[in-house]
Amino acid sequence: MNEKNSASVAEQLKKALARKEQLQSLTDDMLRMTASYPPPLRYESQINTLRKKLLPLQALEDSSKGRLLTLSETKALTGKEEIEQEIERLEEASYGWFEEEDAFRERIQQSRDKFEAKHMRTKRGGGVESHQDDLVEEPGEAAMLQVNGSCQVTSQKEVRGGRHRLERRS
């Protein structure tokens, strides 16, 4: 009986030492090749939601270069800074306790790159088009509308009494 226990303990020790050698042989380069390295940010889903809200505001700001903004466009752009601050706060809140600064910055950059790859594409003219869903237009505000996969500013409409939903063009 005692010989059986010592044989099983020896076998378990042999397996444990083999596993230890295998884990020690892994390098950072090998870990980076795996799909789950570096791990996603803790609040990545909330950050991506805010980034989606930021896309039409960036498109509006880019389209308004060199011209005066309407009152509704100015109101829409005032929330941009608050959204950017909230994104920055959530990114910093995703910082791990024992995480090094370089590894954390790499995770943030990977999150940004993944979002841009999913929601942005370049136009022929060198600009950037963003993919957005239809948005509901508030009375008297300019709205963003998805047309053929690109985000465009629609003309300002005066809508009296309630909300007006813009229809998607095909």
Into which percent range does the helicity of residues fall? 40-55%
Average pLDDT taken over every residue: 75
Instruction: Specify the oligomeric state.
Output: single chain
**Main beta sheet: strand number and arrangement?**
2 strands, antiparallel
Globally, the shape reads rod-shaped
What integer value in Å does the Rg equal? 26 Å
Which strand order do you get reading across the main beta sheet? Answer: 1-2
Discrete helix count: 5
The tally of beta strands, per DSSP, is 6
Query: β content, as a range?
Result: 5-15%
Give the class from helix and strand content and strand pairing: mainly alpha
From N to C, what is the helix and strand string?
HHHHHEEEEEE
List low-pLDDT spans. 122-170
- Calculate the terminal CA-CA distance, rounded to whole Å: 78 Å
Describe what this molecule looks like in 3D.
With 170 residues, this protein is mainly α. The protein has helices at residues 2-25, 28-33, 44-63, 71-93, 101-119; strands at 120-122, 128-130, 136-137, 144-147, 150-153, 164-165. The chain is built from five helices and six strands, in the order H-H-H-H-H-E-E-E-E-E-E. Helix 3 packs antiparallel against helix 4 (71-93). The model is unreliable at 122-170 (pLDDT under 50).
